[in-house]
Amino acid sequence: MTRVPGAGSLNRMTSPSRTPAPSRIRIGSAPDSWGVWFPDDPRQVPWRRFLDEVSEAGYEWIELGPYGYLPTDPARLADETGRRGLAVSAGTVFTGLHHGPGVWDRTWAHVADIAALTRAMGAGHLVIIPAFWRDDRTGEILEDPELTAEQWRDLTTLTERLGREVRDRFGLRIVVHPHADTHIDGAENVSRFLDATDPDLVSLCLDTGHYAYCGGDSVELIRTYGERLGYLHLKQVDPEVLARVTADGIPFGPAVAQGVMCEPPGGVPALEPVLAAARGLDVDLFAIVEQDMYPCPPDKPLPIARRTRDYLRSCGGPHPATAPGTSGTPGRPSRPNGSGGTG
């Protein structure tokens, strides 16, 4: 069943026969594609090397990654990114809002720091990732993988509150990221979450790899909930590795170490039809490449990033460095219209 967008929705579904300008999708990358999961970890590449190499690979848009990995002083970060020709598309924060109102103050204090830096860098989105129900390193079960009805109510109502507060105080749009080993993962839980939240306050960050990891079909999700799509993460999973780790009950972190997230186009889903479905919405979107590789050898990410950039160009996407319609100003590519930025 195809959903009809609400009158207040920022995004607008259109006929699939329309072919929007390629510049409506901006391709970027993220620290994740350099094996970065934590603010500080000796097994990760230094932040300067990440910035150097993501620029060298031909990308202009990046995410902030884990808060504290990149400099948190806006002036310093603007200098470091600007002189490499980079701009920021979004910040990222993990939340556990299903725990109810008692966690709000602590959650907001964390969110506000990241939102402030995101806004200062001129970005328009804040990616919200739900808390893990099992430890992604040890596999320890932290809580029940299924939420109660009350927990679902807390999750949806507090996420709406978060969307309103982030919009009103920082001028940002939240995009909620379904993720393996969280309570918003596969098709059933994603649909339940989207159906229970206000599209004016909460949009979707579709991560193609995580959704496939959890059994979802990204193209079908775009067709069904296209008006909710506000952001894309592009990645693929190796189906053979996925079958093995699923059968063995291996948590997400060790699964990544075993190579479950693989270099495109070697896995699923095929990204060309995903990008075609996204272009068919005729809306402005960021599509950020994320290949989870923590931990990885320091020389591994750059060649993959280059090959992935070339692969995405073959899928009909814009050149990641010089998308049609950009301003042409070095170090400050143009931002998709209506992205919820600060103007």
Task: Please provide a written account of the structure.
- It is a single chain.
- By secondary structure, the protein is α/β, with parallel strands linked by helices.
- The protein has a single domain, classed as TIM Barrel, CATH 3.20.20.
- Helix content is 35%, strand content 14%.
- It contains eleven helices and ten strands.
- The chain has helices at residues 47-56, 74-82, 104-120, 149-170, 187-195, 208-213, 218-225, 239-247, 252-257, 271-280, 301-314; strands at 25-29, 61-63, 87-95, 125-130, 173-176, 203-207, 229-234, 236-237, 261-262, 285-289.
- The chain has an eight-stranded parallel β-barrel with strand order 1-2-3-4-5-6-7-10, surrounded by six helices. Strands 8-9 form a two-stranded antiparallel ribbon.
- Helix 5 links the parallel strand 5 (173-176) and strand 6.
- Helix 3 (104-120) packs parallel to helix 4 (149-170) and helix 7 packs parallel to helix 10 (271-280).
- It is globular.
- The relative contact order is 0.19.
- Residues 1-22 and 321-343 have low confidence and may be disordered.
